Amino acid sequence: SSNAMWGGRFAAGPDAIMEAINASIGYDQRLAAQDIQGSRAHAAMLAQTGIITSNDAEAIREGLLTVLSEIEGGTFQFSTALEDIHMNVEARLKEVIGEPAGRLHTARSRNDQVATDFKLWVRDQMDAAMQGIEALIRALLSQAEAGADWVMPGFTHLQTAQPVTWGHHMMAYVEMLGRDLSRFRDARARMNECPLGSAALAGTSFPIDRHMTAEALGFDRPTANSLDAVADRDFALEFLSCASITAMHLSRFAEELVIWSSAQFRFVTLSDRFSTGSSIMPQKKNPDAAELIRAKIGRIFGANTALLMVMKGLPLAYSKDMQEDKEQVFDAADNLMLALAAMEGMVKDMNANQGPLEAAAASGFSTATDLADWLVRALNMPFRDAHHVTGALVALAESKGCDLPDLSLEDMQGVNAQINADVFGVLGVQNSVSSRMSYGGTAPDQVRAQVARWKETLG
Ligand code: ARG
């Protein structure tokens, strides 16, 4: 049979394959609540402006609430023949209230309808992402506060570089996630314009009030160009971009947790609640949550690239290609929320192991820079010379199989005669971190100040 929505022009219905490639109801039913919200705002505006009667608007309003409760209650029969969520809802509305249902689509197209629905959905996800990030930041702040004094190795090239504090390392992620938060905040503010009333592409001759619908749906204003409004998916791309950068940060941290929880590092112990065992090796406790975070992140990057590819060749305004926006964004959003929640759970539960952290901090000649700095300060040596002398001392310690603080004064004086016993005061890791009081440095007091600043910011 031909189509109820555009049957006038058609003699035959679609081929089964046409229906299969065309239908989006299998996934865009996730937009049901937003679709009904948008339709309610549209109907109220049509009545307010005298385009439909208030009786019809009231019938539409009540009918839409019935449809919504059917969908929420799981009794709604979704139909592939009706293509997408918009036509499924409208067709059911017709069954429920009859003739007035046909007036809902006045001065509207599915093009502005879907742009509006999708924006509402993405906006909610931006809010959810910001909540998830904030929760993770709070978990990291607790870790940083507890371990502001605990010493651990700081790495470059994953080689021991200089001692840092556990709190400092946790706060590095707080800074990254703080920027992620502000990126989502910026994107949300930019996208918060309402496409509804742009109609198919050119606007409408009906005397609609776009400011009214924009306000009813929580937008700051209506979009200013109807062609742009129905063709724009920047908001979804910005969501995916912000999600990708956040996800990249989660993945780096996940990678560190995988390394840190190994028997070779023992920097952290992950809780049983966020670990799994092995079916053959009884001793195993695996960091699967961290690994899956690291892996799922790829789907988010993939979605970002996929939607850019969908959009890059499309002439204005709407093309059906754009229907492919949703699954990418749905999947990316689901996996971002899951990754954020899993990371928050892991961070809340995990125990930093102070003993192994401190032992590792002291190994690998981690205070060599402190030694070189001391030569500059105490002996007024140029830094380049101090670097050279320290290098020779490291080589000496390495040949003796000991660490820098284990060298005797005579050993050191053999390399440079001016070195005196004061040098031993700078070779300890605790001293090393405490001395790095520069703003943003790793000293416990600096870390505590940053924790306090973040707590104040978050309230
Ligand atoms: N299901 C469609 C989508 O998601 C709705 C818009 C359809 N518009 C059109 N002109 N065929 O993009």
Brief summary of the model shown:
The protein has 459 residues and is mainly alpha-helical.
Kindly describe this structure.
This protein is mainly α and 459 residues long. Helix content is 61%, strand content 5%. Strand 3, helix 8 (210-216) and strand 4 form a beta-alpha-beta unit. Helix 3 crosses helix 8 (210-216). Arginine binds at residues 24, 28, 84, 110-111, 114, 318, 320, 322-323.
Taken in chain order, the helices and strands follow as HHHHHHEEHEHEHHEHHEHHHHHH
Tally of DSSP β-strands: 6
Round the Cα radius of gyration to an integer and report it. Answer: 31 Å
Parts with pLDDT < 50 across at least 5 consecutive residues: none
Instruction: Give the averaged pLDDT, no decimals.
Output: 96
Protein name: Argininosuccinate lyase
Enzyme class: lyase
Keywords: Amino-acid biosynthesis, Arginine biosynthesis, Cytoplasm, Lyase
Family: Belongs to the lyase 1 family. Argininosuccinate lyase subfamily.
